[in-house]
Each structure stands twice: as structure tokens, then as C-alpha cells.
Amino acid sequence: MDLGCGSESLLWAIALRARHLVAVDVDPARLEILGQFAGLGRPRGVHTTALALCGRADPDDFPARCRSLAARVRADCLTGPLPAALTESTVDLVTQFGLLGLCRDDEHFTTRFAEIHRLLTPGGWAAGANWVTHDPRGRVKLTSRLYQNAAARAGVHLPHLTRITTADPEFPAVWTYVGKTGRTPSCPPHHRHQPPPS
């Protein structure tokens, strides 16, 4: 399930090879554009680049990604409860690229992070990226501690959380993360520290 998908869910689907892709956005026009792209089944320049970067040489790969678009759901993932169309079932992977960076403060971010990750099946995965804007007015300040607190509330372990500096003066950095639902796996007994024999 790609939340705040805009019109480019098919771009992420190239790398992920999702069997069933559910695209969610508040803007019906963007969902319509996405449906038109999927209906055509022909990669544009950005898709061709992504296919090459992912080593997808099979000419049927992109049409297969288009056929994986199972549903387009109109919903605002930043305000109020998610609609029943989303919460009545669980998914193996939730993605969001840019959505949570639009939150206004720490509590808003933490609450929405927890809300959207409740869609995951036990053992499910999450992946996302959010831009750090040069003009922070009205936007949450993204930090490692904020992500960790939000993930703890959501019951998500973050094996990957990285802030990447960019060359764009308007968006000088981006936070990326990969998460997994459930507890952090415990260390096997033979890896735990054992006291020396007496």
C-alpha cells in the first residue's frame, strides 16, 4: 500500500515487484493520472530509467507492474481516522514518500506514523523517505529521535534510518527508513556475553 502516492506509484512498484498495489492519495486527479498510466502499460522516461537501475530487462516487466495496480483509494492520510476501505484488511508492505514530512509537529508526526503502520500484517515491512525543507515554517522538524519515538509507538523496529544530504538548496536533506513490525529479534544465546567460568 503506497500512501500519499501522487501519480507515481508505478515508479516504486518497479523496484518492489508488488503482486497487488493499493495506491492511496487525497487528490482524485492524481489517482486518475495514475490509472491512465497503468492503463497504457507503457513506460515513460522516468520508468525506463528505474527499470534500467533495477536490472529489469524483461519487456513485460513494466506492463506486469501496471497490472499489479489493484485499487486506487481516495483518503487523507494526515487527518482523522483512515477509511474502512483501508483498515478492514492488512498488507505486507506500507510505503510513503514525502507524506509524513508534511506533518506540522512532533505529535502530529508520531500519531500519523502509528496510524498508517497499523495497516501492516504482523511481520510486515514499511519503507519511506521524507524531505527536510529549507523553509521549516509549518513543518515538523525531522530527527532520529522523532522517528525512533514514532516507531516505538507504532510497534515498528527500524533496522535502517538515515539522513542523506542533498545538493538541493530548497530540500537540503532527506530521511529514509525501513521498518518491520514486531519486536526486535533477540540475540541468539551464543552471541550473548557470558561471564568467564570460575
UniProtKB/TrEMBL annotation:
Name this protein carries in UniProt: Methyltransferase type 11 domain-containing protein
SUPFAM superfamilies membership: S-adenosyl-L-methionine-dependent methyltransferases
Domain Methyltransferase type: 2-126
Any one Pfam family match given in the protein's UniProt record, by short name: Methyltransf_11
Organism: Amycolatopsis minnesotensis
